[in-house]
Amino acid sequence: MLKGKHVILGITGGIAAYKSVSLLRLFVKAGAEVQVVITPAGREFITPVTLSALSGRPVISEFFTANTGAWNSHVDLGLWADAMVIAPATASTIAKMANGVADNMLVTTYLSAKAPVFVAPAMDLDMFAHPSTSRNIELLRSYGNHIIQPAAGELASHLVGKGRMEEPENIFSVVERFFSLSAELAGKKVLVTAGPTYERIDPVRFIGNYSSGKMGYAIAEEFASRGAEVVLVSGPVAITCNHPRIRVISVESATQMCDVAIKEFDGCDVAVMCAAVADYAPEEYVEHKIKREKTDNPVLRLKKNPDIAAKLGELKKGHQLLVGFALETDNETENAKDKIKRKNLDFIVLNSLADKNSCFGVDTNKVTIIERNGDAHRYELKPKKEVAADIVDFIKEKLC
Ligand code: CTP
Is the CB of 218 under 6 A from ligand 1? Predict the structure, then answer.
């Protein structure tokens, strides 16, 4: 998987820098071309001669090569890379990356890189546990970077705790797995609807629901991480996603979501209808704020919204898969089977209402996948990210 891939190995000033030599060897052995970029502090821990001998390329550390004056272009390097791996990543480098402090070659290269970035923090336990480090790591995660959590164990300070850089073999496996996963659904196009819809009553009020969008976003991210191109049609949510293969189209109402979904469905192999679409919208939109003192006991007349899943079901072609979600309180399987037929779905993912850690707002979910013939596949209560992986695994089997 890594043969011929261009990997930038970023090394910073931590005692774990000696382990970067083993990591470099693993990449080279796997056939990757590795360019080492080391910070000035990193050079205090490990000599560039060892690194250039093993990588077969001069190690880059400064913006200019001192004896020739040649400029080391961080822009070209950033574009050259298929992956950037920063191991060890000190608290200082993580803070610079998180906040765009471009004062060395490694951070400027990071800021120019378009490729996936893997960060393996290494530092003393208290530094790692500090809220500042946690916040910076969260920022990196929000940029779409992959954080390879440090292990717990004896540290250079002889204290015992979390902060040891993950072992080179494990860092290598994470990167290798990333590339093998990215090939799984390469060439496939997926449509995901997520979040609630808001149906306007007047300029300040709407009908909405509690959907956070977390499940739909997790599914979109899982598809993208397997190499699929994803269109995520999202109602108003508080979460964001940052994956180069996900195109987010933000909408507000069910009608807007329906129009976009119909337009995007044509070129897709799969559509996953995860949105909690409002079934009804106010019959009329009131242009001016409804005034309390002028309106006693107002009556809100509602009209039915389009059923997006059913509309896609009508348009579905032979090679396309259409997957619905459902929340049922009783006769789960019968109602799900009826919905599959009514909306021409291929299968439905049933959320369990029985578990309080399932459904709206929480980070976990418990689902059952029901097929057209009634076959039911039950899954345990899991984090939504893992539920998304189960659902994508199931869809992948049906696709191939
Ligand atoms: N759905 C949709 N458009 C709607 C309503 C639902 O696309 N207007 C989709 C949902 O995203 C979900 C599936 O249809 O994938 C089932 O949603 P659900 O609310 O359970 O279905 P309803 O048809 O609204 O049935 P119910 O009478 O149970 O509310």
Answer: no
Q: Is 5 in the pocket of ligand 1 (CB under 6 A)?
A: no
pLDDT value at 50 more than 90: yes
Task: Tell me the pLDDT tens digit for each residue of 59-95.
Answer: 998 877 767 777 777 788 889 999 999 999 999 999 9
Q: To test ligand 1's pocket by mutation, which of 307, 335, 368 has the most ligand atoms within 8 angstroms of CB?
A: 307
335 CB neighbour count, 10 Å cutoff: 17
Any ligand 1 atom below 6 A from CB of 14:
no
- Contact criterion met (CB below 8 Å) for 333 and 376: yes
317 exposure class (CB count in 10 Å sphere: 0-12, 13-18, 19+): exposed
Task: State the pTM of this model.
Answer: 0.84
Instruction: Assign domain 189-399 to a CATH class.
Output: alpha beta
Q: Where are the domains of the chain?
A: 6-181, 189-399
In contact, 84 and 8? CB cutoff 8 Å: yes
Instruction: Show the DSSP H helices in the chain as ranges.
Output: 20-29, 40-43, 48-55, 74-80, 91-99, 105-112, 125-129, 131-142, 168-184, 214-225, 254-265, 308-315, 332-343, 384-399
Q: Is the CB of 246 under 6 A from ligand 1?
A: no
Task: Give tens-digit pLDDT for 142-159.
Answer: 999 999 999 888 888 888
The fold of the 6-181 domain, in CATH, is: Rossmann fold (3.40.50)
Q: Is the peptide bond before 88 cis (omega within 30 degrees of 0)?
A: yes
209 is catalytic: yes
Catalytic position from the list 104, 145, 170, 209: 209
pLDDT reported for residue 70: 74
